[in-house]
Each structure stands twice: as C-alpha cells, then as structure tokens.
Design a protein that fits this description.
The complex is a heterodimer of chains A (233) and B (222). By secondary structure, chain A is an all-alpha fold. Helix content of chain A is 73%, strand content 0%. Chain B is mainly α. Chain B contains 9 helices and no strands. Classes of the chains: A mainly alpha (233), B mainly alpha (222).
Chain lengths: 233, 222
C-alpha cells in the first residue's frame, strides 16, 4: 500500500535559506572565478571556464548517484518519496550534464580548435546524457504510478554503471581531454592553490544550487504524486 | 526444481519456440547479411576490408539483430499472455531473465557465426588470430544479451516499446560495442594482447549486467 501523507522535504524553516546560501555562494564563486583567481600562464583567461565546467560535471555525477540511491530506496521500501527524489535528481542531472557538455564545448573551441571531437570523454558524457533522457522518456510513457516508479528505478540502478566509465575514460583510452586535475588517484590536485580554492568554492556553490533545486523539485513531485494517488481512491 | 534448472527450462522453451517459428532468427540473419553487403557499397571494397571498419559494421549489425530478435521473443510472450504464467511460478522472474538472456546468447552465436562467415567470405578478410577473434566474438555476444533482456523487461508493457528499448539499450551498450569492435579489429590485425584485454573487459561487463539483472529484474517484471 502506498502512503500519501509524508511531509515535504525538508522542513519549511530551512528551505528559504538554501536558496539564499546558494545565491550568495554563486555570487562569491563568480567573483573569485572572474576577478580573484589568477590568469593561467598557458591558456590565459580561457581556462576560467573550468569554474563552470568542473562543478557541472561534479553535479552531473552527484545527481545520477542520487538517482541510483533513490532507485534502490524505492525498490527496497516502495516509499513514494524515493521516487520523487529520483525523478527530481534525474531532471536536474540531465540539465547539468547538458551544461557540462556546453561548457566543455566552449572551452574546447579556443584550446583544441573545434567545438566537438570524437574523444572518449566527450562521447561517454553524451552517452550518459542520452541514457538519462531515456530514463525521463520511460517515465513519461508510463501512466500507472507504481509501475512507472519501478521501471524507472531499474533503469536508474543500471545506468549508474556509466558514471565511472565517463570519469575513467580518459585513463582507459587515448584521449585529447586532459587527465583528471582534482580527483587524481594517489596524488593531490594539480592546480595552483588559489585556483583550487576558487574551484572548491564553485563546486560548493553549484552543490547548494543543486540541493535548493532538488528540494523544490521534490516538493512539486510530491504534490503531483498526492494528486495521482488521490484520484485513485 | 533449482534456479539453474528453471532458467534452462525457459531457455529451452525459447529455443523450441524459435525453432517452430524462426521469424526472429530469420529477421536477424537477413538483417546482418544485408548490412555486410551494404558495407562494401557504402565504404568501397578497399575500406570495407580494413579491420576497424569490418569489425565496427559487424558489431553494429549484431547489435541491431539482437534487438530485433529479443523484441520478437517478448512480442511472442505478450501475444498469448504466456509471460503471466511464467511470472506466476515460484522463482519464475529470475528464470525468465536468466533463461531469456541465455537463449538470446545462444541464438546470437548462430547469427554471429553466420554474419562473421559472410563477412570473411564477401570481404575476403584476412584473420591474423582466429582463436582470439572467436574468443572476442563469443564474449561480445554474451555481453550484449543481459542488457537487452533487462531493458525489454523494463519496457514490457510500455507504449512505444519498440522505440523505448533501443533508446535505453544503445547508450548502455556503448562500452560493450567499443570493446567488441576494438577487440575484433585487434584480432584481425594480429594484436593478441589488445584483443585479450578488450575480451576481459567484455567478460567484466557481461558479469556486471548479469548480476544486476538477476538482482533487480524480479522487482521490475509486472
């Protein structure tokens, strides 16, 4: 039996603050990225795209890992909240994967000379994007609440296999994309300290933006679920 | 009856159904043969013989053929509601996945051998390492089956299933497609170490998706 009385997440007091903190951190990250961080000796100011590109990549990974965990949660407990979390995170993940690809493309043009090349990292990222678009499409084609949630959960569990493939593709195959700069196995970040700090603040800001969007999106989905389950009674 | 026996029973049922009405196998064989023929027209006979091109086209043909055959198999289940009886049995859901994946793997071996022989004959391919090629092709066929079966199960009673299954499956099968194409090309060109490493990757993917399928498919079948 599906319960419909769960309260929205999280409790109301925190919600406005999430948006405020996300906005403040985003403004700080923007200032640090555009003004405070030094110019790169090789790439000049073009490298500053990193402060959008890397955080959007991180959010894409994070969002899809959350989809995976929420999918397991749904399959395990059949609580609608997990389904709401999964669909909310998948939608935001697709959005940020799109931004990740666009930001990468903007960076690629001045550095590689092309907007797009058939590089393993680029192709696997595009594949990840299509995979989660398929996830959302599958949800759109199902009308029954429980069946839709279960089908989507199975895809949400399977699709997570692509995340390590995207991240490690630059190590496994010949790639024009640079090797990991921050999350390096057995070594520290290969960045100047001030650049690293700016990147850290950008990642934090984007993470707060994700959480703020997620909370609002879950709320919308919970209302939608409540309407669907109400009409069933 | 043990779980492996149930799976083998489903696989045998699938193979008998295919023998009685081999429309899925016939479509897959025709499709693969057609693509091999079109390859030399599209690329020209010289380029079509290059290991990269020949193996890439072969695996794309196999991928589409596997999709055709699996969809036909599930169509058959749905046409007379036979699937409901299987699901209702104790352990029927696991057996359905394992049996279908096993049967699809076996049928794809037939398609793969026929398609491969046709490629070798028509394109006059030179195979530097036949044993390695057979190893990669076998693992490639085994690695495709679990993903396609899982996605067919997920989209079993979804509208537009014919479109949804490829949309879900193809992105998931990209790593297997790359590994199978690169491994086959290496075996054709005579690079044993590269062929074996891609083969190992295919085995890993087959294992991961088989375990995932057995774990979550029972929850997905309606």
């Amino acid at each position: 039996m599906i319960e419909t009385t769960a309260s929205p997440f999280p409790q109301l007091r925190l919600r406005p603050w999430l948006g405020i903190v996300a906005t403040a951190l985003s403004l700080l990250a923007m200032w640090m990225g555009l003004v405070w961080a030094p110019t790169d000796a090789v790439q000049g100011d073009v490298y500053r795209v990193i402060y959008v590109h890397v955080p959007t990549a991180w959010l894409a990974y994070l969002a899809f890992v959350v989809v995976f965990l929420a999918s397991i949660g749904w399959l395990w407990s059949r609580r609608p909240w997990f389904d709401a979390l999964a669909v909310a995170s998948a939608g935001i993940g697709v959005l940020f994967t799109g931004l990740f690809i666009v930001a990468g493309s903007i960076w690629a043009k001045p550095t590689w000379g092309v907007w797009w090349t058939w590089d393993p990292r680029l192709v696997t990222t595009a594949v990840m994007f299509v995979m989660y678009v398929g996830y959302l499409l599958l949800r759109g084609l199902s009308t029954d609440f429980e069946r839709r949630a279960t089908r989507a959960a199975v895809v949400g569990v399977i699709a997570v296999v692509d995340i390590p493939i995207v991240h490690l593709s630059v190590l496994w195959m010949n790639s024009v994309h640079q090797l990991p700069t921050v999350a390096r196995i057995g070594a520290g970040p290969a960045l100047d300290a001030s650049m690293g700090l700016t990147l850290g603040v950008s990642v934090l800001a984007f993470t707060f933006v994700y959480v703020a969007l997620l909370v609002e999106r879950i709320d919308i989905e919970r209302h939608r679920q409540a309407r669907v389950l109400e009409t069933r009674r | 009856m043990s779980a492996p026996q149930r799976a083998l029973l489903i696989a045998a049922r699938e193979l008998f159904a295919e023998r009685a009405h081999p429309d899925g196998l016939a479509a897959a064989l025709t499709f693969t043969g057609m693509l091999v023929l079109l390859e030399s027209l599209a690329f020209g006979p010289g380029r079509a013989r290059e290991p990269d091109v020949a193996s890439g086209v072969f695996w794309i043909a196999i991928l589409f053929a596997a999709m055709l055959m699996t969809q036909r198999s599930f169509d058959r289940e749905l046409e007379d509601d036979a699937i409901d009886a299987v699901i209702a049995l104790p352990g029927g859901r696991d057996a359905l996945f394992a049996g279908k994946a096993f049967a699809l793997g076996l049928l794809m071996v037939i398609v793969g051998v026929a398609g491969g022989a046709l490629s070798i004959f028509l394109l006059d391919l030179e195979i530097a390492l036949p044993g390695h090629l057979a190893f990669v092709v076998l693992l490639g066929l085994v690695a495709l089956a679990p993903v396609i079966v899982v996605n067919n199960v997920v989209a079993l009673r979804v509208r537009a299933r014919v479109a949804v299954v490829p949309i879900l499956s193809f992105p998931m099968l990209v790593p297997q497609l790359i590994a199978a194409s690169q491994g086959s090309a290496a075996a054709l060109a005579g690079d044993a170490a590269v062929a074996l490493s891609w083969g190992a990757l295919l085995a890993a993917f087959a294992f991961v998706y088989a375990v995932l399928g057995l774990t979550i498919v029972p929850a997905a079948i309606e």
